[in-house]
Amino acid sequence: MKNINVWKALAISLIVLIVGSSGIYLYRNELFRHDYQFTDDLGGNIFPSAILSIATTDAVVVKPAGNHYLGNPKSGFIIRLKARRANSKVRVTLGKTPFFEESISEFVLEKSNTVYQIFPDVIWNYDALKNNNQAAPISISVEVELNGTSLGKKVRTYSVRSINECLLAYLDSKLKFHDTGIFFAAYVNEEHPMIDKLLREALNTRLVNRFVGYQANYPASVEKQVYALWNVLQKRNFKYSSVSTSSLSSNVVFSQRVRTLDDALESSQVNCVDGSVLFASLLRAINIDPILVRIPGHMFVGYYLDKGHRKKEFLETTMIGDVNLDEFFPDERLDSTMVGKSQNEMSRFTFEKSKLYANNLFAKNLNGIKTHQRFYMYLEISKEVRRNIQPIGK
After folding, report:
1. Per mean pLDDT, which range of 156-170, 261-275, 370-384 is the poorest?
2. What is the CB neighbour count within 10 angstroms for residue 63?
């Protein structure tokens, strides 16, 4: 009987030893340890134009999903982690890349058994972002510590998009559509050094004596100033270029290629978006409030004729370039009527036809614009927008 009890005791001890050893093994192999996710809301894409345009503002355009988040959502990087006890301390280290320095962020997770989204600080290299004119892959490493214990290091490859790519929209984890067309305002640059040169060229035409915005207080004065801008751009012999697609291939993110003001002036090429943001830059520089209107596959520019915004006009900026007018007005055979006209006569003619075409286009798409359907946009480049979105800069 005694021997049996001894054997039982030995068996129990052996079982305890095996279970204990297994527990230690499993613990060391992280089966029951904390884990975290390193992710983002834009399908692994980083948009320099979006980062630069909100760097000095309080705007959060890509908003966090859910309620429990910490840090600065403008960083774009997300650490998802569950706090198993209250007031857990988290330390996040992002490794250095060509686009940002190493950064360390610390947080306190106040609630237990709660999944948090943590947005670590990022020390961006703004010059590197601004000069990135072609999509480039980068590997980003992150290490997370929870209550002083490392949860390991993870590495993920991201695509840093070109400065010329504007984030149009994205689908969140629940496939909800979020319009981010406000980022087009980043390409409207009323402070660009070339603006003064263009305005000087416009004054040299003597179509206007000065640019006074709404000070004259009547629409005809505004129209005269707007035409002077149209005329000077036509004298620069812009060519229409339909290049607008990017190399982005994503099911959750939508983007549009946009030339910066530098690119448009150097190449003398514009598509509908390029021409619209360029013209909006000039309008805003002379204190006339511009509007960017987007419909699926196209953009044109508008402007208010009075300070109170009671009247407005629209322009089809692709007609600034060397275009076939018969494509816009197929029933009028307009190209044949242009023979023998002076440059200024042609400029005035296309200006008036541009307004006619764009106003008709606006009227046809008014319902989609008013109801905020997908890829429709009516964006006033106002002081309020400028408080959220700043120009990318030279």
Report:
1. 261-275
2. 10
The answer to whether 379 and 178 have CB atoms below 8 angstroms apart is: no
Residue appearing with tokens 């997370």: 144
What sign for the dihedral angle of Cα 357, 363, 365, 370? positive
Q: Per residue in 86-125, pLDDT tens?
A: 999 999 999 999 999 999 999 999 999 999 999 999 999 9
* Structural contact between residues 312 and 287, judged by C-beta atoms closer than 8 angstroms: no
Spatial CB neighbours of 372, under 8 Å, sequence gap ≥ 6: 179
In the chain, residues under CATH classification 2.60.40 are 33-160
> In the CATH hierarchy, which fold is given to the domain comprising 165-388?
C8orf32 fold (3.10.620)
Please tell me the predicted confidence (pLDDT) of residue 342: 65
Q: 338 versus 27: which is more confidently predicted?
A: 338
- Ranges in the chain annotated CATH 3.10.620: 165-388
Q: What angle do CA 216, 346, 316 make, to 5 degrees?
A: 65
**Which fold would CATH assign to domain 33-160?**
Immunoglobulin-like (2.60.40)
Q: How far is CA 115 from the centre of its chain?
A: 28
